[in-house]
From TrEMBL:
The keyword Iron applies. Its main location: membrane. This is Cytochrome d ubiquinol oxidase subunit I. Its EC number is 1.10.3.-. GO terms for molecular function: electron transfer activity; heme binding; metal ion binding; oxidoreductase activity, acting on diphenols and related substances as donors, oxygen as acceptor. It is found in: Cell inner membrane; Cell membrane.
Length: 472
């Protein structure tokens, strides 16, 4: 059956679909947990500073959600590392000497830090002092940042590989300085852009939950705090993200110009100013944008800060080196469009706050509720833009995707793909449903945190020793 279903399909394509599917599921959890860990640290800090129990209630409310999100992020991430050995063994062999140590550093730093303090954060509120518990929360938040640091360093090296040498067997080997590899040209921009995206993702989830409960009860103090904090984040950080995204785009233009050509839909070179296509349908066969709605010379203004600056197009690139333009073109516009909507909601909330209507504007609350999942869509669209735009390379300009895959038959890859789809939707679908169920319940005074079984866990059970007589 599998032979008839997948026999005529390219095994490399199936391997790419499998990795795209698993990483898309995985990415939404760290994107939430990175921001949520920092939000928990802020809530606990405000509780310690003000003594107001509302902050403690919200800390415990979101702590339960964080625990589930963190667990699903870890489990979904483990699967991807296995795929490096199963579906991408050639890539692992060639790039392993560079990316292997960097991923090991994540385990030795971020995972060890989180493992050391996560238990204290989740279960230690009534067992350790307030300051020690707050320190544990900070360590978990820092751990999520360190994890993102190493993973994005690996990904950025694959986008802009530097600091390596090619061994006699074709392997990428570290050169004189690891710091050159770690802080490769695109890494600082990608790190800032991704972290801010994670914080905005969390802000809009928190804002949506606050808006949901405000629509039911405008006087709910917990909902007011959530909504106010989230809207401050949207109003202040969304403009910063747009600036960071622009800087990241300029860096991409310098080091990966073909990706930018696909993002912009520039099949042809424009020697006297390139248009920005708002909408259109990329036609890679005819090398044009069909039904284009464009603003003349705006692309040159954005990318070169000059209306008449020339921009090269895909007509300067061999066809075999072009990425799939349609996917990159639209994923980029989805990401940018959502970013502008986030900015709009943030400015709307700022106007409502100045007018004293932040908690009395049902239309704003409904808009925030609709925007709740927008951060997840944006980060997935951004990931697609980055990764599909890098094609046809795994290590940009040096190692092709077609040459990176394991020598597997399509039915073998297809079987594992089907298994992943079924298991992921069942397991992580159930986890997501439970998170939404927790969010639907309003925070209340004396909110219970993550609860553990009373007493220590004894794998052998409890067997009291018989009473000794006569002192024996």
């Amino acid at each position: 059956m599998l032979e008839s279903l997948f026999g005529s399909v390219d095994a490399v394509l199936l391997a790419r679909i499998q990795f795209a599917f698993t990483v898309s599921f995985h990415f939404i959890f760290p994107a939430f947990s990175i921001g949520l860990a920092s939000y928990l640290a802020v809530l606990e800090a405000l509780w310690l500073k003000t003594g107001k129990d509302h902050y403690l209630d919200l800390f415990r409310y979101w702590l339960k959600i964080f625990a589930i999100t963190f667990a699903m992020g870890v489990v979904s991430g483990i699967v991807m590392s296995y795929q490096f050995g199963t579906n991408w063994s050639v890539f692992s062999d060639k790039a392993g000497p560079v990316i292997g140590p960097l991923m090991a550093y994540e385990v030795l730093t971020a995972f060890f830090l989180e493992a050391g303090f996560l238990g204290v954060m989740l279960f230690g509120m009534n067992k350790v002092g307030k300051k020690l518990h707050f320190a544990a929360t900070l360590m978990v938040a820092i751990g999520t940042f360190i994890s993102a640091f190493w993973i994005l360093s690996v990904n950025s090296w694959m986008q802009t590989p530097v600091g390596h040498i090619i061994g006699e067997n074709g392997q990428f080997l570290p050169g004189d300085s690891w710091w050159t590899i770690v802080f490769n040209p695109s890494f600082p921009y990608r790190l800032v852009h991704t972290l801010i995206a994670a914080y905005l993702t969390t802000a809009f989830v928190v804002g949506a939950v606050g808006a949901w409960h405000l629509l039911k009860d405008r006087a709910n103090p917990h909902a007011r705090i959530m909504f106010s904090m989230a809207m401050w984040m949207a109003a202040l950080v969304a403009p910063v993200q747009i600036f960071a995204g622009d800087m990241h785009g300029l860096n991409t233009l310098e080091h990966q110009p073909v990706k930018v050509m696909a993002m912009e839909g520039h099949y042809d070179s424009h020697p006297d100013g390139a248009p920005f296509y708002l909408f259109g349908i990329p036609n890679s066969e005819e090398k044009r944008i069909d039904y284009a709605v464009a603003i003349p010379k705006l692309s040159s203004l954005i990318l070169k800060h000059d209306l008449n600056a020339p921009l090269a197009g895909l007509d300067t690139v061999p066809d075999e080196n072009e990425p799939p333009v349609g996917i990159v073109f639209w994923s980029f516009r989805i990401m940018v469009g959502i970013g502008l909507l986030m900015l709009g909601v943030g400015l709307w909330s700022l106007i409502a706050r100045v007018r004293g209507r932040l908690y009395d504007s049902p239309l704003l609350h409904r808009a925030a509720l609709v925007m709740g999942p927008s951060g997840f869509v944006a980060v997935i669209a951004g990931w697609i833009t980055t990764e599909v735009g890098r094609q046809p390379w795994t290590v940009y300009g040096l190692l092709r995707t077609a040459d990176s895959a394991s020598p597997l038959a399509a039915p073998a890859v297809g079987a594992s793909l089907i298994a992943f789809v079924v298991i992921y939707f069942a397991v992580f679908g159930a986890g997501t449903w439970y998170i939404l169920k927790l969010m639907s319940h309003r925070p209340k005074p004396g909110e219970a945190g993550v609860e553990a079984e009373p007493g220590p866990v004894r794998t052998a059970g409890i067997t009291p020793a018989p009473a000794l007589e006569g002192g024996q």
